[in-house]
Protein: phenylalanine--tRNA ligase
Amino acid sequence: MADNSVSEQLLQRLQDGGSKGVDSLELAALLGVEHQQVVGAVKSLQCLGQIIEAEQRSSKKWELSSEGEEIAREGSHEARVFHSLPKEGLLQSELMKQPIAKVGFSKAMSNKWIRVDKAAEGGPRIYRVVDSIEDAVKEKLQLILKGKADDVNEKDKNELKKRKLVNEVTVKSYWVTKGSGFSTSITKQETDLTPEMIASGSWREKQFKGYNFNALGVMPECGHLHPLLKVRTQFRQIFLEMGFTEMPTNNFIESSFWNFDALFQPQQHPARDQHDTFFLQDPALATEFPMEYLEKVKKVHSEGGYGSQGYKYDWSIHEAQKNILRTHTTAVSARMLYKLAQQKEFSPVKYFSIDRVFRNETLDATHLAEFHQIEGVVADRGLTLGNLMGVLKEFFHKLGITKLRFKPAYNPYTEPSMEVFSYHEGG
Structure:
């Protein structure tokens, strides 16, 4: 039955009943439709103005579970066990092969319908104790199924509930009465005043739906964290759990001194060309440096020192002054280590950073001019390669990556160097 038809039937019932109301549950039963269909008709009529008034009511009712419906049809487990026993009895091992035997045997024993002869030949044997039984469980469930739950006392209903044969559910219904604008004819109310209505004057004969200023509007779709930010947050949390302190990385513009020279990257290296690095035009040069440290860096580049023979070239401060968009966050690490060296007494530290860096790349589907770099620095006495491997292993374990392999590798800027490999069984 269509919703419009249900709505018309509802209005007709109200018209025929005078000042009386209509219960939505009773109407659903009378029309032979689902109760939800009547509820839909009530809500539709409510949207048309003051045609009807609807009061929501709640009531409790008992419903059979799927197991309860099965018992109402075929009998209780204990009754079916009783009826399955022949006069000469049945081996307990044979009885227990039945799906309902476990519960049925226990209940039938409690009701003293059956007995067990443990000394019987071939093993324990089950016999009937009485000639006939009354399946009260089935009868009570059939009463509830027919809507006569009031004929079953509360104790029995609670017992059936414990056996998960019935459930007490809350049923919401509507008591519907005539509204101030009651009419048996359904006229759809207009929601918009159009230019055509104004031009023709037809708006005068139209009924318009009233505005509900208390209604909540459609919630706007909220923003979502970018997947990269989610990963970044996860990595940051792992570093903090491992006792690292985050370095300040809010300076995207860096001098070539801290980005290259302080890391002992030669000034003639191709990475310092414009086709690899973004150089600034304004301001083009940095002017403030720790001069004593700058002189030490210059000497190592041009002459060597601290076990290094240097690059043997004339180091230019003009090249070191050039401002760039940092090509790695290691420039921040260089600053932090310099700052650490200025302390009167050395104290071990663990630093990390996660932030953007910039390269003058050719843009394509897999390359951008910027990406994120994750970096960690540990400064202490007596550190070995084993300490580094332990830190890396712990970091990856916290990510859920446990299958790790470390392989020696060559890197012109670090010695010793290695690569880390991992695999995942589901990959």
In short: Residues 230-381 form a domain with the BirA Bifunctional Protein; domain 2 fold (CATH 3.30.930.10). The chain is about 35% helix and 20% strand.
